[in-house]
Amino acid sequence: MFGVGRSKADSGIIPPVALQQISLADLERLFDAFPDVVFFVKDRAGRYRYANETLVRRLRREQREQIIGKRASELFPVILAQRYETQDKAVLAGRIITDELELHLYPDHAPGWCLSTKRPLRVNGEIGGLIGVSRDLGRPDVRHPGYARLQRMVGWLSQHYGEPIVFARLADEVGLSLGQLERLCRRVFNLSPRMLLTKIRIDQSMVALAEGRTVAEVAQASGYGDQSAFSRRFRAFVGLSPRDYQRLAGWPARSRSRPR
């Protein structure tokens, strides 16, 4: 039916050797078409070698060449660059990061949640750099038949995020098993219920800090046992301490009372 004796090229099948010739530059151009995905490749020194147009725009640069050859410390504020470079070192040592929930702060200080994946890039068996993508956390799938049920759960979490949460009870309240709640939440929100709660807590914490509330007040309101536990968790996701974030948002660090 397809013709006897046709070559692989004629049949549309790309030989494996040809696939191996796809370059990082080709991938860079491919990812230029995705405004919600950041793509990058770094060498062993942590310098950008490839970066798609999304990263260029988010760094408020006009040309890709303004990024290539530079480290994170030359492109981001020090307190953010330290986070990125620490993560890069772990990946260059062999760690693989898959769909890790992260909050990125852009040059206008606007926060954006994303799921990041980073892998070592091997050249002749040796780690020669790293390759990564960070995709924006998309909007929930509102067309999914379980969306309305989960919206009730999200509404409840948004009101009670500072309280101890037992997810098995929460699943029972919406008429699901814990396993069903986990699967449905990932399908609709791309997050587990626990990750969704963490996102809500961090989002609310950033709002409160930007309004000038003290770290101690925000820690208590967010459901963390003490200020140090809250600070560790906040830094893990935002890359900044609560006080550093407050300074970035335009407030001096406050330790007594919030402004009135």
Structural class by secondary-structure content: alpha+beta
* Mean pLDDT rating: 84
Percent range for β-strand residues: 15-25%
Oligomer: single chain
Explain what this protein looks like in three dimensions:
With 260 residues, this protein is an alpha+beta fold. It has two domains: 20-136, PAS domain (Beta-Lactamase), CATH 3.30.450.20; 147-248, Arc Repressor Mutant, subunit A. Helices cover 44% and strands 17% of the residues. It contains twelve helices and five strands. It has helices at residues 8-11, 16-19, 24-31, 53-58, 78-92, 147-160, 167-173, 178-189, 193-210, 215-221, 227-238, 242-248, and strands at residues 37-43, 48-51, 97-105, 111-123, 126-136. A five-stranded antiparallel beta sheet has the order 2-1-5-4-3. Helix 10 crosses helix 11. The longest helix is centred in the C-terminal third of the chain and has 18 residues, at 193-210. It is globular, with a radius of gyration of 22 Å. Residues 1-11 and 253-260 have low confidence and may be disordered.
